[in-house]
Write a structure and sequence with these properties.
CATH superfamily of one domain: Tetratricopeptide repeat domain
CATH topology of one domain: Serine Threonine Protein Phosphatase 5, Tetratricopeptide repeat
Mean pLDDT: 82
Structural class: mainly alpha
Number of helices: 25
Keywords: TPR repeat
InterPro entries: TPR-like_helical_dom_sf, TPR_rpt
Order of helices and strands: HHHHHHHHHHHHHHHHHHHHHHHHH
Radius of gyration: 24 Å
Low-confidence stretches: 1-79, 87-93
Pfam families: Coatomer_E
Shape: flat
Distance between the termini: 26 Å
Number of strands: 0
Largest sheet: none
Strand content: under 5%
Protein name: Trafficking protein particle complex subunit 12
CATH class of one domain: Mainly Alpha
Length: 528
């Protein structure tokens, strides 16, 4: 039998199972991603009554109740459970665009922008070194790997059951992009962003070629890079993100284009894009670089908060606003500060710097803007990091502190935490019972079923574990067909029998019929 670290954490480290029990009114792209409840891509699909790309907001990235700590920055417990709380005290406030778009450029960028502002329109031509010149590195479209695998293993006749959208099946605009994302067709969505960016002169082979930027084009880039990160296309992600640097070139600010935006201040790139670019090295196995990037972002955010509290504008300039507007702006940026800190925690966990992670989480939990449920999530996160450290008693104390802040002692989060405590003490039957009770409260939460199956495995009930996961897939294939669960069940098939190919092909058949193009078929562990 595989060791506990490699099997139990499949639900944590590999692909993050979703808690699909969130209310249908939940907004943001997160509600369309099968293995997250919220993600950094929340800005791509805003609330239903707001048109896509219309109004940038800060990013969010919360996730299921137990997606624990992981090596994959796109799949961490903190990215999912805490960032939602951070955004509730930041981007859901009534701050105006002038505060949402605010950023402090470097001194060099300030000089260039000041020169443009004092020049006759059209007479100032910045050097190439002051320009952001992105372009696509992918020539052609990404293919539908699920379709290709189904044809390879199941034959051409299986293709008649494949009914998913492609980039050519939707309107060639943001609405079409939204449709692709909603249906889980992320590869097709990436293909569509490529077509739309080509209109801006930023298509294939256009890196290092000057082009104009708008909030719309930058939002398209944010969408594309976020989806590339989601699909783990690391090489393309790294190469296409490089031209943006840290979004500090003068042409990333409205005042670079006085003929279009007049004297409008601020950054054309949304805060979520800035944060994503800082995090990208972590996706590329460079967490220390990401950590450095995040601390630079954090430093600027802290300076902005300091300026606002002194009565100045975000950039330190004199700006007239009412006390209410000032308070809203401070809440916005304090929430963004929390969001950056959560990303720092995720990098610290990747680096196994658990002490740093605990210190930051404890500092966050002392904030006054959290409601009882959010505070419980923070305490729970601290406990899970302490479990990684092996400090069971300290973790138990944090779990207890979290329980005190929540009225219902038997809610699913509490039961899940108790299950994790039991796992840390190798009490797998007790853990199973806790996850089962939580599953009764949240019957659609696939993550809990997955954890129950893993507990059965460690109790020597391999066949029961397989049956439990298969039953979950039969009950709800749309929600159940997630990479983490598929990888787990295929691992169990291999432990259960030497004839594991047929049940794996059955899973491929279900993928082909029920899911979009975003699932990595490698999770089925089929040999080509």
């Amino acid at each position: 039998m595989a060791d506990k670290s490699s099997l139990f954490q499949l639900s944590d480290n590999i692909a993050g199972l979703s808690d699909d029990s969130k209310p249908s009114g939940d907004t943001g792209l997160g509600r369309y991603f099968s293995n997250t409840t919220h993600t950094i891509f929340d800005e791509i699909v805003p609330p239903e009554k707001q048109d896509m790309l219309e109004q940038p907001s800060a990013s969010a990235s919360p996730r299921p109740v137990f997606d624990s700590f992981l090596t994959d920055p796109s799949n961490s417990f903190l990215e999912n459970s805490l960032s939602d709380a951070a955004e509730q005290v930041s981007d859901h406030v009534t701050a105006s665009d002038i505060h949402r778009d605010a950023w402090i450029p470097s001194d060099q960028t300030k000089k260039v922008l000041a020169s443009i502002a004092t020049s006759t329109p059209g007479s100032n031509f910045p050097d190439r070194e002051n320009l952001t010149m992105p372009g696509l590195t992918l020539q052609g479209d990404l293919t539908d790997t699920t379709k290709e695998a189904a044809i390879h293993f199941l034959g051409e006749e299986e293709n008649i059951h494949r009914n998913v959208l492609t980039a050519s099946d939707v309107t060639q605009d943001e609405r079409g992009l939204r449709n692709l994302i909603q249906t889980g067709c992320y590869r097709a969505a990436i293909n569509l962003t490529g077509r739309l960016l080509a209109i801006y002169g930023q298509g294939y082979g256009k890196i290092n070629h000057p082009s104009k930027h708008t909030p719309h084009s930058l939002q398209l880039w944010f969408t594309r890079l976020a989806l590339l990160a989601k699909l783990k296309h690391v090489e393309v992600l790294e190469n296409e993100s490089k031209p943006f640097g840290n979004l500090d070139k003068p042409d990333m600010f409205f005042t670079f284009y006085p003929e279009l935006y007049g004297t409008r201040p601020g950054s054309m790139a949304c805060f979520a894009f800035r944060l994503l670019l800082a995090e990208i090295p972590a996706y590329c196995n460079k967490p220390r670089v990401a950590l450095d990037n995040l601390h630079k972002v954090l430093s600027t955010v802290k300076q902005i908060i300091k300026n606002l509290k002194k009565g100045f504008g975000e950039d330190g300039g004199r700006l007239k606003f009412t006390p209410t507007e000032r308070d809203d702006a401070i809440r916005l940026w304090v929430g963004r500060e929390s969001r950056v800190l959560i990303s720092v925690v995720n990098c610290a966990l990747t680096l196994k710097n658990y002490i740093l992670a605990v210190d930051i989480l404890e500092s966050l939990s002392e904030g006054t803007d959290w409601n009882p449920e959010q505070r419980q999530i923070l305490k729970s996160a601290i406990s899970r990091v302490l479990l990684l450290l092996g400090d069971v008693s300290a973790a138990e104390k944090q779990f207890a502190d979290g329980r005190e802040s929540f009225q219902n002692p038997s809610n699913s989060k509490e039961l899940t935490d108790r299950g994790l405590m039991a796992v840390a003490q190798n009490a797998f039957q007790e853990a199973y019972n806790c996850f089962k009770k939580a599953s009764v409260l949240e019957p659609s939460n696939i993550m809990l079923v997955n954890n129950m199956a893993v507990c059965l495995l460690y109790n020597g009930q391999l066949q029961a574990a397989v049956h439990l996961l298969e039953s979950a897939l039969v009950r709800n294939p749309t929600k159940g067909l997630q990479e983490a669960l598929l990888l787990n069940i295929c691992t169990l098939y291999e432990l259960h029998t030497t004839h594991s190919t047929q049940p794996k092909l059955h899973l491929l058949r279900q993928l082909n019929r029920y899911k979009g193009d975003a699932i990595a078929v490698q999770c089925l562990k089929l040999s080509l």
